[in-house]
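Escalated from tier 1: nicotinamide-adenine-dinucleotide holo job.
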Amino acid sequence: MDNQYKEAVAVLERTAELVDLNQRIVDQLKKPQRIVEVHFPVSMDNGSTQIFTGYRVQHNNWRGPYKGGIRFHPKVSLDEVQSLAFWMTIKTAVINVPFGGGKGGVIVDPKLLSQKELERLSRSYIRAIAPAIGPQIDVPAPDVNTNSQIMDWMRDEYERIAGHPEPAVVTGKPVEGGGSQGREEATGLGGAIILREAVKHLKKSPTHMTVAIQGFGNVGSWFATHAAKYGFKIIAVSDSKGGVYDPKGLDVEAIVTGKKNGRNIPEVGSGKKVSNEELLTLPVDILAPAALEGALTKSNAPKVKAKLILELANGPATKEADELFRKKRLSVVPDILANSGGVAVSYFEWYQNIHNERWAVDRVRRELEKLMVKAWEEIRDTSRTMNSDWRENAYAVALERLAQSARK
Ligand code: NAD
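Tier 2 regenerated the structure:
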């Protein structure tokens, strides 16, 4: 999607007016502070050397070190990475963790690489951006197509350059390599906590609500597991190969196990097969897009039947789709709140590394629950005073915090 950054910034401008934010601050937030573009070599298994392009965008650090994931995808673009970095600045302020916003990406289809090539690519990218990162400067994490193994390679490569241990340079590491318990499930669990609270606020009960989830990777699968535990009825799920739909409810555990064994949703899910497009417009109470940006567009948004949209992916609705949802007065739980559980536990991981602590999973879950519920309540209460939508309220909360720490 082109112009994604322009669309991201349009929301900032709209909300800045609502909260009467100083224009000097708006102007600074409209531009990333630093863009790092790197071209780096990777030795391929056939003996050749290929040059890859990657980015690290450091949007804003008024509230702390830049923080944000690294994405490996053939469609990575500077426009996309900038938008994701911008949303991280807002997200870390929404949940009030002491970080700013950053994001990285490499233009690559990792499915076409061997494991060894993937490792060499991860290490070479980190060597290229090493001068720009560090535990108090910029702290990367996993995103689409990157995982704890990749973070482990990146941390190791950074430590070779630094010449000393520096586990806090990335988060999302394996637990045995300094990662936090509970990081893997955090984004999905955080989304389920926020949904539970939003539904309570709307005076409804989870047991009477049906859910369709687009995307069944890290976020979608953990969200499905925890939402089902809270009593929500998951009736449709999809991955890039297609979806399944059963109005009586799906067996989430069986689907998670099937996916872990390398099978696709259409192979493992019971019920009727549906296309990715069909899943978005099924008759459900809640639609949870958990795949990539721009899934909900002006062409499919008018057909969406859900009354509540939980934005687990970053930027899943285009500007036109979002405007339509606002006009139709659908309840939209914005990405900057709904998917912030990951960065919350990333903060816990960074904190544990810096203080040489190791928290048990129960403590991580307790702290996550506290942090997410507090963030939700602040946004809900802003809603009471401003009488506007949850995205605007979340931006309002974030912008006020950013304004308080702005550099003069
Ligand atoms: P992932 O790579 O683990 O999973 C992505 C899933 O989407 C896969 O199941 C893939 O098959 C599916 N998919 C891709 N295209 C699809 C389509 N057209 N229809 C249906 N399914 C499709 O990625 P993830 O980590 O789960 O991230 C998903 C989204 O959540 C991204 O927008 C990411 O930026 C955002 N996010 C992730 C985290 C995190 O902690 N992982 C945190 C915050 C936000």
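The pocket of nicotinamide-adenine-dinucleotide is lined by residues 142-145, 187, 214-220, 238-240, 276, 290-292, 312-314, 339, 342 (CB under 6 Å).
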